[in-house]
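Example record

One chain of 213 residues, shown exactly as stored in the release files.
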Amino acid sequence: MPKKEIVKLILGFRHFREKFYLGEDTTYTKLSNQGQVPKTLIIGCSDSRVDPAILSSAGPGEIFVVRNVANLVPPFESGGGFHGVSAAIEFAVVNLQVETVIVFGHRQCGGIRALLFPEECHAGGFVQQWMKVAKPAKERALQSEESGDPTLLWKKCELESLRTSIENLHTFPFVETAIKNRGLNLMGIYFDLEKGELLELEESTGLFTPIPL
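Predicted structure tokens for this chain:
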């Protein structure tokens, strides 16, 4: 017998199938026949507490999601290698023609914690190598947070990493083309999971402001 955690997932899939597959003209009949047409790309964190589909109550086919450690966007570069995040951004912007790209950060991010306090990270070199993408965020956080409080520094760096990822999105030529030609919208949103609040990065001012709910 599978472990009870796997049994729970299987039972969850049964519920999912009953909701979206049974009967005529089902949700997945339409999605299968018509393909996906999501309007929003969300670049989220791998953290199990911050699933974008769950937090937004999105249905099947409504959002295109790429998740990675610390919801980072690397800068554009074309020099070979494996670029999973960049490939997802390209597919969403160029092929799916999404209208909005959201970089979705959150409080208590383990990736940002590893960036700030590498001595606490017990993993191998993959996490530290990946987190180099957010090095500018770390530098800005250290410069602006003078209290010495590690918790405040952690949150400040989480916010700064959103700013860094938005800046990196602008380095992709096809993103800039989409902004110019069809009004692609870029957003940085921060989920404070401790308070149940959302903050939005105002690109024009660089400030984070609460989103009324």
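Notes: Residues 91 and 97 are 8 Å apart (CA to CA).
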